[in-house]
Amino acid sequence: MIRTPEIAVIGGTGLADLEGIEILESQWPTTRFGETSSPLIFGKFKGRELVFLPRHGKDHHLPPHTINYRANLFALKQAGVRSIVAMNAVGGITSKMAPRQLCVPDQIIDYTYGREHTYFDGSQDRVSHIDFTMPYHPNVRNKLLEAAASLNMPINDGGVYGATQGPRLETAAEINKLERDGCDIVGMTGMPEACLARELGLEYASLSLVVNWAAGRSDEVLTLSSLKVHLDAGMVNVRELLLAVIPIL
Ligand code: HPA
């Protein structure tokens, strides 16, 4: 059956399924950029069709630098998607970005390297330089903020996302540098996802959940289990917010 979902949710760490959504079917599409992280999961919520894609794979086996971002975004475009909410688990750098805080960033700085980061790789017959002044789409950002307000859920409106290469976490000096650059949060999956979405003309915004203080910002040693405590607690809000934003996107 041909489906035409206009909305997509890209799941990050902690979001490998969409609870509360009626699942219609899953399809594993082929793209000329290779395979997506997992099958596309088509579902319905309050009469709206949507597609869900966990970027780390169903069983979270793909580290950030090995994700095929080009295939993922291209497959969503091929499926007919117009707007994307991308969930990102991040570290908090500035004081307002404490663990469990939510943020809808409005800017991004790219520190990644060696990733396939463009569809305009020279194989086309034209060169294209997209406008990326405002990397996140205002419509999707505003809907996320509107949904949070309707739930009385505190959320940071704006913030600079620093996208690092990983998979290791940063040094304290690297986080100090990111803060001097103006970053509020740090994560490993924000780029090239955001610019590939823009190259394809997709409306894209991030819903970021802070799961730890970034390196050097607390005395706590960063372990997977300490991140998981904040992740599990924060995901309750993320899931509630996603269900509230889907019908209004
Ligand atoms: N750094 C980079 N990526 C992350 C972090 C962090 O501290 N926490 C969650 N993703």
Plain-language structure description:
The protein is an alpha/beta fold. The chain has a single domain (7-118, 133-248), classed as 3-Layer(aba) Sandwich (Rossmann fold). The chain contains five helices and 13 strands. It has helices spanning 69-78, 138-150, 172-181, 193-199, 224-245; strands at 7-11, 22-27, 30-31, 34-35, 40-45, 48-54, 83-92, 102-104, 107-110, 156-157, 160-163, 185-187, 203-213. Strands 1, 2, 5, 6, 7, 8, 9, 10, 11, 12 and 13 form an eleven-stranded mixed sheet that branches. Helix 2 (138-150) packs across helix 5 (224-245). The longest helix is centred in the last third of the chain and has 22 residues, at 224-245. The mean pLDDT is 94. Hypoxanthine (HPA) binds next to strand 7, strand 12 and strand 13. Residues 89-91, 164, 169-170, 186-188, 211-212, 214 line the site of hypoxanthine.
Write the layout of secondary structure elements.
Blueprint: E1 7-11, E2 22-27, E3 30-31, E4 34-35, E5 40-45, E6 48-54, H1 69-78, E7 83-92, E8 102-104, E9 107-110, H2 138-150, E10 156-157, E11 160-163, H3 172-181, E12 185-187, H4 193-199, E13 203-213, H5 224-245
Parallel strand pairs: 1-6, 1-7, 7-13, 8-10, 9-11, 11-12
Antiparallel strand pairs: 2-5, 3-4, 5-6, 7-12, 8-13
Helix pairs in contact: 2-5
The structure holds hypoxanthine.
Rg: 17 Å
The average pLDDT is: 94
Give the low-pLDDT segments: none
Helix % is 10-25%
